[in-house]
Amino acid sequence: MPKAKNQTVPAIEPSGRFGSACPTPEQKIAWLKIGIAGALLASLGLSWRLWTSARTFPLIPVNEALPAIPFPLDYISFFAMIALLVAILAMPRPQKLVLAFLVVAVLLALFDQNRWQPWFYQCCFMLLALALYGWKKPLAALNALRLIVVCTYLWSGLQKLNANFVRETWPDMSGPAFSHLPHFVQNIPPLFWLIIPIVEIAVALGLLTPALRNFAVALAILTHVAILLTLLASRENTVVWPWNLAMILFVLVLFWQEKETTARQLFDRSAFQMAFLLFFGLLPALNFAGLWDSYLSAALYSGNTDQQAIYVSPAVIDRLPPTARPHVWQASQPFFLDVNRWSYGELNVPIYPEPRIYRRVTERICSYAGNASGDVRLRIIDRPNLFTGVRRSEYYDCDHLDMIP
Length: 405
What we know:
The chain is α+β, with helices and mostly antiparallel strands.
């Protein structure tokens, strides 16, 4: 561990346990830098169309006055992020490179809210912690990252504590994997699957408790392995596979055999630590009142997000882009475009699940429909009642989209 200012710090200190070695804070920072940048690099590569303007799925900027980034500037911006991440991986102290990456990433995020994916949001904040603290105050950086990881597990679990998760979301997600398991596993009562959010909450609380940390780390690893096996079976959402692998690295590096850091140290009153606490610990609570976005509140695969369906006639279907037509339900009436499937199909990410995003996409469909725009209706399906799973729906046509809150 670091001692006096001018003393030499050994690369590794003995831990006194089973003859093993305890990595220094500086080594942990180096590993975490590789994990964060590597996960981002892989996920950006898997979702490369998301970061360009040459696509049919609509760009949804934070302000309608922002124009699409024209070719070739969109590709230049994307490859600038890739090059910066490669440089961050290669350089031992890439503070300025991290800041440069974050500038480009934030600018691109302003031009399309669909880029605000949970993995991108979390990893950018983790890189920010490294840029602010990592190579000057490594202990402060580690505590900031610990806080982000703990809050992510906590809110992910709390978001899944709802009837819709156990009745619809988990069965849909696990169906391909469970189809190969014995029937008694497939017939487990839905209420049993509340064990999943309970485990995530337990991981968060365990990581805060020094005596329980190793157990919580093991539980977190088992959770991510199960998630990865489920996703591999369904071949869904490949863009989050690197994130799940990175989370295994994060919990190992930040919490395994970490007995000295207390929960109170994660909530110190420094300005930047309070900012991390605000964005990952406090603001997600507002999501339950509809005042903070779901994907900024760890609600991926929670069943606790707004949904949509855009009803269209055969005349409108013929005018849709070729990338959208395969995702129109036509087996029975009413026909509808599943925008989430369209987003997966073209961008390899789920749509950012907020009503304002659904409205903007529907406006684009209305423009494609032309004089058949009267055949387009948007259905906003509100988040479910936590206990009953019942959802309310509201319908809007092309002339009344601005009425959506």
